Amino acid sequence: MTCRRSFKPCYDPAKFEYEISDFQDWSVRPLESCSLELKVAFKNEKRLRRKKNLETPETLAFDTLRSRYYDDPMSLSLAEVAYVKAWDPCSHWTNLVTTPRFYQPGLGICLRCPSCGKNGVRVGSNFRAPPRKDEKAWRLIGKMIATGEDMGAVFSSSPTIEEHKEMAVEALRIRSQENYSKAMEWEAEERKRIANTTI
Ligand SMILES: [Zn+2]
């Protein structure tokens, strides 16, 4: 673990549209009004659809290229990627976070670190990054990641049954305490009112 920076995906609905699946996968795409490239892609797609009824060699070639873009994007040249992007608005979606259905190291986050450019590791909401110089803590984190520990699950905020029971007891305690102090307040108020009326 050489880079220890933590970062979060930002949420900016004024510039981007978001798609959240039933599995809590997050995808993001610029708003059409904010991206000239996307505007062009929508226009081109409309034009392509009109032609599609004819199924010209051009549309067939594009369909093949587009399938390759979704199945194996690394097999495309930069020019081919640019071509797909210019004609297919769906290709402008970027997958931000994938909730693993089964754990696979590396799967789960498609966000790159703003410092080193490498893919991040998704951690649960309870994760608190240790200080950068805490070698021991970072060695442990590195080991967990290397052994394929699901960091999202380990550091998630879902309580265990025991923790849940403890929280329920604590909630009852707080409530009875609140009721008690409220009762005391009422009593004090009542006493004040009685005192006022007797004067
Ligand atoms: Zn980094």
Mean pLDDT: 83
Low-confidence stretches: none
Q: Which molecules are bound besides the chains?
A: zinc ion
Along the chain, the helix and strand elements come as: EEHHHEHHH
SS element count, helices: 6
Q: What distinguishing features does this structure have?
A:
48% helix; elongated; three-stranded antiparallel sheet; 199 residues; mainly alpha; binds zinc ion
Task: Describe this protein's structure.
- Helix content is 48%, strand content 7%.
- A three-stranded antiparallel β-sheet has the order 1-2-3, with no helix packed on it.
- A hairpin with a 5-residue loop joins β1 (16-20) and β2 (26-30).
- It has 199 residues and is mainly alpha-helical.
- It folds into two domains: 7-122, no CATH class; 159-199.
- Bound molecules: zinc ion.
How would you summarize what this structure contains?
The protein contains 6 helices and 3 strands.
Task: Summarize the helices and strands and which ones pair or pack.
Elements: E1 16-20, E2 26-30, H1 36-52, H2 57-71, H3 78-87, E3 94-97, H4 135-146, H5 151-154, H6 161-198
Antiparallel strand pairs: 1-2, 2-3
The structure holds zinc ion.
